[in-house]
């Protein structure tokens, strides 16, 4: 059973309750952040969309293409944009649900959502460090992934103190204090929680059974099938 909650630690987080899933929406520069969020809630990771603008322009895109940066640029150049969901291939959803994902490199097992947020922040920080090659960046990050290392065991607590949060904070509090949007996918690949306001920094999570994973590579996650 899915528990309707916005806890950062226990239960399955969802804001799908009483949410009417729509198959199409129109966007402009004034409503993009809220309307896109409402439109995407409940969407499957393998969903395809028809993007329409300038009356005659049409192209098919995937979920990863509807990112904040690209959509902001698009609505700034065109007066109105329409997005329509195309029929989802049910075999893709079934295949996604059947695959064991624990060892997928796009996913990182976390103790909690706040632990995942701390790891995400540290990963971004390491990626932006100049003069370090990819291998050294990965080695440095591995120290923070491991709970048996001092860096890893202290990471979440330092994050909680920094943002004045605790492990049981509501998702809305995390989003407000950390200036980000949260997105959570379930074991079928459905987007069961998405911040009411789509913002520039989005941190994605995947829930399966009692486990929570940080989606470290969203493009890679979208290719699981």
Strand content: 15-25%
The tally of beta strands, per DSSP, is 9
> Cα distance, first to last residue?
24 Å
How is the main sheet built? 5 strands, mixed
Q: What is the overall number of helices?
A: 8
- Taking pLDDT < 50 over at least 5 consecutive residues as the criterion, the unreliable ranges are 1-11
Structure report:
By secondary structure, this protein is of the alpha+beta class. 36% of the residues lie in helices and 20% in strands. It contains 8 helices and 9 strands. The chain has helices spanning 32-40, 68-77, 90-98, 113-127, 134-145, 150-163, 171-178, 218-222, and strands at residues 24-27, 48-53, 57-62, 81-85, 107-110, 181-185, 191-194, 202-208, 211-215. The strands form 2 sheets. It has a 5-stranded mixed β-sheet with strand order 5-9-8-6-7, sandwiched between helices. It has a 4-stranded antiparallel β-sheet with strand order 1-4-2-3, covered by helices on one side. β8 (202-208) and β9 (211-215) form a beta hairpin. α4 (113-127) packs antiparallel against α5 (134-145). The longest helix is centred in the middle third of the chain and has 15 residues, at 113-127.
């Amino acid at each position: 059973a899915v528990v309707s909650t916005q806890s950062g630690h226990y239960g399955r987080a969802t804001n799908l309750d009483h949410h009417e899933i729509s198959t199409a929406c129109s966007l402009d520069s004034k409503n993009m952040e809220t309307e896109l969020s409402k439109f995407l809630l409940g969407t499957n990771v393998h969903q395809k969309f028809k993007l329409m603008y300038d009356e005659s322009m049409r192209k098919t895109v995937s979920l990863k293409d509807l990112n904040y940066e690209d959509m902001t640029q698009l609505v700034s150049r065109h007066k109105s944009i329409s997005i329509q969901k195309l029929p989802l291939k049910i075999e893709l959803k079934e295949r996604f649900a059947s695959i064991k994902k624990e060892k997928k490199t796009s996913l990182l097992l976390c103790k909690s959502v706040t632990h995942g947020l701390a790891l995400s922040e540290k990963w971004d920080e390491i990626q932006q460090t100049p003069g370090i090659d990819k291998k050294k960046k990965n080695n440095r990050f591995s120290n923070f992934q491991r709970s048996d290392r001092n860096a890893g065991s202290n990471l979440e607590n330092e994050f909680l103190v920094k943002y004045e949060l605790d492990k049981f904070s509501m998702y809305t509090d995390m989003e407000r204090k950390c200036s980000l949007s949260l997105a959570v996918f379930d074991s079928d690949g459905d987007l069961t929680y998405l911040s009411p306001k789509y913002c520039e920094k989005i941190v994605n999570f995947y829930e399966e059974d009692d486990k929570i994973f940080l989606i470290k590579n969203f493009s890679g996650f979208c290719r699981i099938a």
